[in-house]
Amino acid sequence: MRTLHRHQVELRAAIVESAFAPFASAIVPARLSPREQLDIYRHHYVLTLTEALRVTFPVILQLVGEACFRAMAARFIERHPPVAPVLFEYGDRFADFVDDRSELSGGLPYLADVARLEWAINLAYSADDAETIGLAELVALSGDSSSGALLGLHPSVQLVGSPYPIDLIWRANQPGADPAATVNLDRGGARIVVYRDAELDAAWRSLTLGEDAFFRMLNRGATLDEAHQAAAVHGSFELGSTLSWSLNAGLFVKLPATANPQRSFPP
Amino acid sequence: MAISSSPTAINPAQPGIGLRAAHHGDVAERRPAVGFLEVHAENYMGGGRPIATLEALRRHYPLSVHGVGLSLASVEGLDLGHVNRLASLCARLEPALVSEHLAWNRAGGVYLNDLLPIPYSEEALGVVGDHVAMVQDRLKRRLLIENPSAYLRLRASVIPEAEFLAELVRRTGCGILCDVNNVYVNSRNHGGDPRAYLKALPASAVGEIHLAGHAINDADGQPVWIDDHGSPVAAAVWDLYAHAVRRFPHAVTLVEWDSNLPSLDTLTGEARTAARIRASVLLSELSYAHAA
């Protein structure tokens, strides 16, 4: 192995795995020991990635507290080091990690789903830009055959579901929320659409069962008519009012004629 | 209404500031009198508000795009997807300057979120030289390469850093971003004369000077100088900056602040201090020239 390659493999091991010994012999002796010098790098790596997770998952931090969050982050960073230099994209596996390690989450069964909501909010904030359409464009697009029209969802749009009231939990843990307020877990689950609003803030809205089915169908590439039929199974669904708020919120984009809008969301 | 074109040239007499997200609103609203704005490329590689803010600001300020993620010294090659994202960003923002670091941060598919040192050797020159040339070809523009701070020195280093940079300039036509805080921090941690370092850089290639604060930490009773960009520029670094201005009078100056972010006023105050020092150094050079 050539020198540069060996250096990079060994310094990576020192930083990611705290395996300091192999690289120590490559270092010129100095006032600080090799271990102390390498610790500066290791410390910076863990500290800055923890900070990135803290920015993306503020409600998880609020729910578990500083010490627990730091321990969770350290384990996560060890298990899932970043693979790309765009730090706002780091943390896509954090929710699954929380799910698999319930001993870390202190018996909060909803924690992983709250992390999923926060990750969706993070993605919505930084998702690619795309031109949204309003009601007039939808009408023009559909022409005579609105039932067969394909609607594209904006890249920021995501659907999050949970058997727990994660919408209420999220709200109760925002800055300025009443610290004495409690959330009744018996209220049942939440179905949420997350998106980016006209002010470019990440936003979300709770969905009825019908609306949830409607957006999940559209997301799978169904036509407006097919999505409507699936949603109508749930009695309360009203196509007009759902289209009205969702077009206003900028959830839809025009699809190119040949587009295949298949995307996969977690079930 | 006429559409005004964006400012694309930086006046070296007007130092710039590193723009961080927490100052977006303040800068957009108050439009402080600074020469340019420099941003970390990777923070603007998505859609939404960050890039929209920058696209609005570029109508009023020249921009400098400062990458931290290219890993130019990675022996396993460039991440071409990331190079393409940088190219798209530069096409969208048309910055006056694009810069990166003489460092690496990717190995075995892991991104190490730091600017890690390499041994300065013929082998490393080959790797970095090839990568700088590839990125310049893709971006169709010159890169400025920054001297890094380092907390250890490598036995395999056989070329002084300034000479390594000079040779990189000769091979690739790149420019140099001289971070005087890094030069100072390295000299405190590893010895060496920081003024001699500045003298050894090829003056005509230095297009930008970086200034930032550092911390002095304690490691088992030993002081260690850390380039944390978390405080005002230190007096000794302002002294070194005066030397850098004398040596690189055409370079533009930037003040960076990343941790313990201060108010925008404090940051622009640092930029004004830089402008004052630069002007007084150059004026004194002028009077020497007349007296001679």
What does this structure look like?
The complex is a heterodimer of chains A (267) and B (292). A three-stranded antiparallel β-sheet of chain A has the order 2-3-4, sandwiched between helices. In chain A, a hairpin with a 5-residue loop joins strand 3 (190-196) and strand 4 (202-206). Helix content of chain A is 49%, strand content 8%. Chain A has helices at residues 3-17, 21-24, 34-56, 58-64, 66-79, 94-100, 111-126, 135-142, 166-172, 209-219, 224-232, 239-248, and strands spanning 152-153, 158-162, 190-196, 202-206, 252-253. Chain A has twelve helices and five strands. With 292 residues, chain B is an alpha/beta fold. Chain B has a single domain (16-270), classed as Alpha-Beta Barrel (TIM Barrel), CATH 3.20.20. In chain B, the strands form three sheets. Chain B has an eight-stranded parallel barrel. A two-stranded antiparallel ribbon of chain B has the order 5-6. A two-stranded antiparallel ribbon of chain B has the order 10-11. In chain B, helix 7 runs parallel beside helix 8 and helix 8 packs across helix 9. At the A-B interface, helix 1 and helix 3 of A face helix 2, strand 5, strand 6, helix 4 and strand 11 of B.
